[in-house]
Amino acid sequence: MDIQLQQVGYAYAKDTPFEKRALFDVNLHIPSGSYQAIIGHTGSGKSTLLQHLNGLLKPSEGIVKLGDLTIEAGKKAKNLKPVRQQIGIVFQFPEHQLFDETVLKDIMFGPLNFGVPREEAERRARVLADQLGLPEEVLEKSPFDLSGGQMRRVAIAGVLAMEPSVLVLDEPTAGLDPRGRQEIMDLFHHLHMEKGLTTVLVTHSMEDAARYADRVAIMHDGRCVLSGNPIDIFGDEERLAEYRLAAPRVVRFQRKVEAQLGYPLDRLCLTEEQLALELSRTVRGERESL
Amino acid sequence: MTEILSLHEVTYTYSPEEKEARKAVEGISFSVNDGEWIAIVGHNGSGKSTMAKLMNGLLFPQSGEVRVLGETLNEENLWEIRSQMGMVFQNPDNQFVGATVQDDVAFALENNGVPFKDMVVRVHESLAQVKMEKFLDSEPHHLSGGQKQRVAIAGALALKPRILILDEATSMLDPQGREEVLSTVRKLREETHLTVLSITHDLEEALLADRIFVLNNGHKYAEGTPQEIFSRGEELVALGLDLPFAMKMGNLLRANGVALNNEHMSEEELVNDVWTSNFNK
Lengths: 290, 281
Hints:
The complex is a heterodimer.
Chain A: E1 3-12, E2 20-30, E3 35-39, H1 46-50, E4 61-66, E5 69-72, H2 81-86, E6 87-90, H3 103-113, H4 118-131, H5 148-160, E7 166-170, H6 178-195, E8 198-202, H7 206-212, E9 215-220, E10 223-228, H8 230-235, H9 237-242, H10 249-261, H11 272-283
Parallel strand pairs in A: 3-8, 3-9, 6-7, 7-8
Antiparallel strand pairs in A: 1-2, 1-4, 4-5, 9-10
Helix pairs in contact in A: 3-4, 3-5
Chain B: E1 3-12, E2 25-33, E3 37-42, H1 48-55, E4 63-68, E5 71-72, H2 78-82, E6 85-88, H3 101-111, H4 116-129, H5 145-157, E7 163-167, H6 175-191, E8 195-199, H7 203-207, E9 211-216, E10 219-224, H8 226-230, H9 234-238, H10 245-255, H11 267-279
Parallel strand pairs in B: 3-8, 3-9, 6-7, 7-8
Antiparallel strand pairs in B: 1-2, 1-4, 4-5, 9-10
Helix pairs in contact in B: 3-4, 3-5, 4-5, 5-6
Pfam families (chain B): ABC_tran
Keywords (chain B): ATP-binding, Cell membrane, Membrane, Nucleotide-binding, Translocase, Transport
GO molecular function (chain B): ATP binding; ATP hydrolysis activity; ATPase-coupled transmembrane transporter activity; cobalt ion transmembrane transporter activity
């Protein structure tokens, strides 16, 4: 699904003495099938922006286009339900939203609510539980008896069970251990590729943005100040610093190596694996730009 | 070195009535010296948070004992001992009670009956320790995540604790906020004799500690200096943990045929090794 934000502004408690503007003139185009990362320090407007992506918040100014649906400031948005079905949001700490008696019922709740037949909902729940590494016996347990990491997986399965075509992820791995973090990010990436999803990842992790996204946008003081491909964004450390951000660790490391070598490598590497490969080529004297 | 806190064969289960219920922690023993910085690491569900709760008496073990400042923790001395321990939790938004930064820091002092005159002094002192003295009258929700956690640390410090427990205190922060909190802790350790116990998933944070305890499925898996622990390499990865960046990078470089003389935990050492072993031969 193609998503467009055109000159979007948003104010909390608009027209009251407590009015607080959170977004200013945000323009962002997320083409269907892309993996868009949104980065920015705390309070930059990332979460407010995210809530526009399925009509939870309506813009105070400008236009939000979600596929064929247009939500325009000042106009009543109608028929949000079909769009909401297609856009799955994994909020921060989604395990806080678990509520049902058993894990299975919790995962099935979303699809049932949108009219998916019971058998199909259950089939999806079982497949997803397996993909997310939840053992079979967990399905009949209360979600509240699980560990934090397992609860997170249940909550994520509940969103995926709706089979959305857009997946919006708000810090989906905060608080998970390193393996859990990698497993879940890899699963999202796998689904993104396999099902051709449009994925929007809101994150503090420059490393995740660099590894998974094909487009990166920077939010700063409620504005979308920069967007482009990860190489351009993460290659410009001065610019990042202006927005109180740092390049991914691997990029900073590459710069240290280059400072020692006295020349730049052929390309900027966004993952440790790429950099190891690039350095091995350099060591073997296979540089292109000699 | 004097011991400040220790666990002796501590076992705890959340559902003691069920016979086969998994124990959250089992047979854990370790000892922390006065003034040490200890990192406690382990996968989700390994028992880290349970241990933190056992250490400050939010939970009592079904068997074994927890000793703090030479005394076995029990319901009689709990409050006395707890006043020696400050605790900072994961979510900065869940631990504010005051309407302003200084009210918040003063809250625990007021609860402990500290006279007003002393209270004012201590609030200023502890906010200065975390470099938040300029924010006395700010409202907490106007602060960044890192600033909020520094205020939470100030709130803990105001009671002049001997031990500071950080329960994933940096995990919800952006990189800048994390760095602020870590440099605050580093500075506190240089200037005071505070003992720090930090429960964390962040291996770079664990690298800063004097010693690391590794928990796995409720058991103590290993303890040692960061050097000793991380030299276990892939073994840690199998436990669901991670390696510091320089080690991961080093392993990948070797796998790609780049010569290296040694394992490194710092990036600077690794850059040097790459240089001397491959380019400056």
